[in-house]
């Protein structure tokens, strides 16, 4: 499989992105795996990876909360499983049980919610859920990390005997202490523990009067420590029983290890799965912080970044509460290479790095801070030449290093390559270096590579205008304020604003004029022309914005007038319908009056009935026409209403997308203790803390236990 070079990763500071994302991992294995990630060069693999992260990120805004995925490494246990007749210790078995429960909970959750998380479900659908693993461990090891009495019949018998002997020891020791205390042989402290044995604190002068084993004395020698004779025989029996207990525990753990050995592959799969989920979660959390989204991926050479932010610069400026300027860049088969010029400190290099860094992030499955309508493709090579790479150790000058880099570019670049070259051609004589750079650019063009190049060389700007699939671009500069605007404009070369920048930095105007006289007049005029064109473009952009604002106002006024006109028209139609109805009723009344008068004069029923039937038929015919027209009108209104509803929905989506996210308040640091009743923030279930270690807590919910970081818990009730 082809790999993106380490140099490109370093030049574009992708390793810093990995470090920042790795800080959001919940496990050490996840952190290590994330730091070792390299960009993929397969579109199908990138599509799957980025969809998984996008699905995980979507869970934060839905009711489908993904379960916790924290676990401890079981690498040592897996190594022991591959060794015949080995023994895994209790703590490692606890880690295995917790990992198995975590992985199985995730697998069940994604299976249940596969409609919402299709890629995350597919990722683990082949992994079996072996319920017997945690069940067998829980049968043998209790929640306190002790071997259960029910682990074996022999252990139950031994422990029962230990309890019996312990009772005898306590009874005998208490009897001896009462006896010698009443005799005044004991010191005020009465008793203590030496070598895990209860002993009497006897005054040195009475040591021969107390029968038992002498186990030591105080520093001053005024007190001696004696284990009563009645207790000695039971203590020896206790030691034998404890030894038997340890032997039995050893047998139980070896038996459990042997039982676990056939499940080695499943446990390895569980750990790999949970580690991958941890990385996906870390990527999604990082995406939340940088406002990352999933761009549209394609298999053609089409790179269309809309409102793209440099993630590292965005986070840095966000912390400083400064504005970050987005860039919009288009590269495709019609525009393969972009030659960016403009003043120093105008944003050329950061634009270059933004393109490269976002490309590496996407090819590693990261969501990126761009507009959702952005298009990105997959490159086999991302070739970079950014910064001064002078090497004293290798005796390479900046230009020598650049030439070696160019030689590498010439060998590797093709239509699946992305070239990112900063200050193209610099490091040598401007004319000679510029000529060589021009030839390099022509070769890159012939090989159909996509790329972005920054330069100050005039000949490269001219070449960009001559080649049909290459374009000039410039970083805008406000000449009035003598400051860059950080806006990229495609279609024309930019001035370096050398003298303007010098003036801004306090160089005397007299020296600037003397410098102008030192160079060719044509060069000054050319640079001045470029500067003039940029000023004109800025003016045009300002005028365009004003015209757009006026057009928007006019549009709003027209919409208001149209709404008012529609209301007036509706009222007029209503009045007209009412008038027509009145007229119809008058005509109908006149007809009925004529029939009634005729019947009054001649009292003939047949003409009366015939006349009435004729009137009824005529009215019913009119009603049929009105019904057909009414149905058509209702259909039209329904269609219009549907269009209006869709527009409103789209507007709500845009408003929801642009709505600023609430700032999470800093939670107070709590001092938690074993036995405290706690729950997860935004959670409902209340559990009890069984164990606290290294800012992590084992929380018992009754039906199950889980390990969480203490920062994620809130106190419900003190123990």
Mean pLDDT: 83
Which structural category do the helix and sheet elements fall into? Answer: alpha/beta
**Quaternary class:** single chain
* Main sheet record: 6 strands, mixed
* Radius of gyration from CA coordinates: 42 Å
CATH topology group of the domain at 296-495: Rossmann fold
Q: What is the helix content?
A: 40-55%
What gross morphology would you assign?
flat
Strand content: 15-25%
Describe the protein's architecture and organization.
It is a single chain. This protein is an alpha/beta fold. It is built from 20 helices and 19 strands. The protein has a 6-stranded mixed sheet, with helices on both faces. Strands 18-17-16-15-19 form a 5-stranded antiparallel sheet, with no helix packed on it. Strands 1-2-4-3 form a 4-stranded antiparallel sheet. It starts with 5 loop residues before the first helix and ends with a strand. Mean pLDDT is 83; it is low at 390-395.
Q: SSE layout and pairings?
A:
Elements: H1 6-11, H2 14-22, H3 28-35, H4 43-58, H5 75-81, H6 90-112, H7 118-124, H8 132-140, H9 153-182, E1 186-194, E2 197-203, E3 212-217, E4 223-228, H10 229-260, H11 264-290, E5 296-298, E6 303-308, H12 311-320, E7 327-331, E8 337-341, H13 348-362, E9 375-377, E10 381-385, H14 398-412, E11 417-421, H15 430-446, E12 450-454, H16 458-466, E13 470-478, E14 483-490, H17 498-504, H18 509-518, H19 521-602, H20 605-658, E15 677-680, E16 687-693, E17 696-700, E18 705-709, E19 713-717
Parallel strand pairs: 5-9, 8-12, 8-13, 10-11, 11-12
Antiparallel strand pairs: 1-2, 2-4, 3-4, 6-7, 13-14, 15-16, 15-19, 16-17, 17-18
Helix pairs in contact: 2-3, 3-11, 4-11, 6-8, 6-11, 9-10, 15-16, 19-20
